[in-house]
Amino acid sequence: MSTTSTLRPPTEHAEPPPKRIGFGGRLSRWDLRLSPYLYISPFFILFFVTGLFPLVYTGWVAVHDWDLIMGQGEFVGAKNFTDVLGGRDFWNALVNTFSIFVLSSVPQVLAAITIAALLDANLRAKTFWRMGVLLPYVVAPVAVALIFSNLFADKFGLINTLLGAVGIDPIGWHSQRLPSHVAIATMVNFRWTGYNALIFLAAMQAIPRDLYEQASVDGAGKVRQFFSVTVPLLRPTIIFIVITSTIGGLQIFDEVRLYDQFGRGGADGQWQTLTILLYEQGWTRSNFGRASAIAVLLFLIIGVIGLINYFITRLIATSEVKR
Amino acid sequence: MSTVTPAPGPLPVAPDAPVSGRSAPRRHASYADRPGWLVYGLLGAVILGGLFPLWWSFLIASHDSTILSREAFPIVPGGNFVKNAATVIDTVPFWRATWNSILVSTVVSASVVFFATLAGYAFAKLRFRGRGPLLVFVIATMAVPTQLGVVPLFQVMAKLGWTGELVAVIVPGLVTAFGVFWMTQYLSQAIPDELIEAARVDGCSMIRTFWHVGLVAARPAAAMLGLFTFVATWTNFFWPFIVLGPQDPTLPVALQQLQAAHFVDYSLVLAGALLATVPLLILFVVAGRHLVSGIMQGAVKQ
């Protein structure tokens, strides 16, 4: 650490005139008192302007007639909300979003925990394996979407060709609803599984090894140890990963937008998600009021799920204390 | 829009967790408990599974698209990759987009690191009124999807005349709540209070103390935060797509244009996807081990 320079007394200490000490003392008192606020202010100012204010203002836009070009119109109250909730698109997009979210988070958590268990073994060249599973994380979602859209192409796609080779009829990855969700979820899983595996790995390494020794004295095999020791102790981590993937998953946009060249979520909205709908209402149909109403609703949904997650966490935490 | 993608976060684990995984003496490294070939085989399969989509897109990108519609399976790479890449570079403003991505990601990561270290140092090491509630506020905002403020944020940018300009992508990324939290966590352990007191007693002003003690101690965590921010900014699509015009895009936005222009010509589309991935792959090869240890560390810290 090269902090030694700060320990050297500053040169002006050589001959301190008494008056300047009084002034310097007052200055340094102000320095002491104000500096902390000065240091945290860039974050708060920028965050209020670019994060919090837009978020709050969304609520204001949502209760107005608001056009992309014309700007603010008259106050319409809940009309944007009733329009959104009364139409078919919102519910369709909501179901799609949840379907893609469940298809991506459940297999992802299972795969990540398995990969973490493999990485937790006493491997040679640990860093190589850890880097290897993280590699997909640096591929941009947009590139992932283009690549997987090709792999899952309806006519000449690799997946359908392989399915054909084992005698299965081609699947309409870009025309049918559930298959399109599976394909999009695969992109999300591709990018995030290795990342989550490393988070699980970190938590696994924090588990005291004596527990495994005890379990093995009690006659538990590797698999039994995994389910009776590792998984229960990982519960907080599992919940954490579910929360973060919920926040990300409910806002999914990139993968969906580039799944086909039109970017509207399918000819019949088979894979249209809430953020795609938000974009379409706001920027294609230039109805900012309705787009904001969708944003507010999405925000509420994320909030409710966050609360549910929080209470589940509390429940598990307290039940662990009781034991 | 403070967070562009889910960043590595804190999670609750056993309080007596060893922070550094490498030097922890818990494994009594007896070579008898080395795993068998099955574990290596499965991990190898996982890595191949991660590489395959990239390899596949290279196969397609190195062929002429007319061949592809006749036979679906190119097993060996063709010789057309350079030609396809050249077409991509002609079709979309590729160099411009690459330069924009480098610029945006660099400025954003430098700013996030600096302001997060500054705020993190204040939260970790300085005593001031309102410190507790303000820190709680920072942590609470990490769970708030600020992405959903896109409509007003777009209006703000339009009012400022920034739509279509890179500054509209840079400014909302300048700070992140996660960064502040990450540096607070790190600095509260990394700097002994005595060091700061010593510097103060010696007559250092607050800012000099920060500069010579805080910033120096923060370097390892700052490097990781910078790396994560860089990757997240580089791969971000939603906001740049909304606010940037077609003339002056970032790479992901340029890729999107490519698909809109060439939706059937997968050779070109995938050549573009690969070209856009190369810079981050290089970064990954150079700094991947830090990225890995960053995730591991971020996960264990409370």
From TrEMBL, chain A:
ABC transmembrane type-1 domain residues = 94-309
Show the SUPFAM superfamilies listed in the entry: MetI-like (SSF161098)
- Transmembrane regions: 36-57, 98-119, 131-153, 192-212, 233-253, 291-312
Where's it mainly located? Answer: membrane
Compartments in which it is found: Cell membrane
- Classification via InterPro entries: ABC_transporter_permease (IPR051393), MetI-like (IPR000515), MetI-like_sf (IPR035906)
What CDD domains has UniProt attached to this entry? TM_PBP2 (cd06261)
What membrane topology is annotated for this entry? Answer: Multi-pass membrane protein
Enumerate the Pfam families for this protein.
BPD_transp_1 (PF00528)
| Organism superkingdom | Bacteria
Key words, A-Z: Cell membrane, Membrane, Transmembrane, Transmembrane helix, Transport
Query: Entry's PROSITE patterns?
Result: ABC_TM1
UniProt family annotation: Belongs to the binding-protein-dependent transport system permease family.
Q: Which PANTHER family match?
A: ABC TRANSPORTER PERMEASE PROTEIN, INNER MEMBRANE ABC TRANSPORTER PERMEASE PROTEIN YCJO
What is the name of this protein?
A: Sugar ABC transporter permease
Automatic annotation (TrEMBL), chain B:
Q: Where in the cell is it found?
A: Cell membrane
Cross-referenced SUPFAM superfamilies, in alphabetical order? Answer: MetI-like
Q: Membrane topology for this entry?
A: Multi-pass membrane protein
Q: Which domain of life is it from?
A: Bacteria
Q: Transmembrane ranges?
A: 37-56, 102-122, 134-154, 166-184, 221-243, 263-287
Q: Where is this region: Disordered?
A: 1-21
What family does the database annotate? Belongs to the binding-protein-dependent transport system permease family.
UniProt name for this protein: Carbohydrate ABC transporter permease
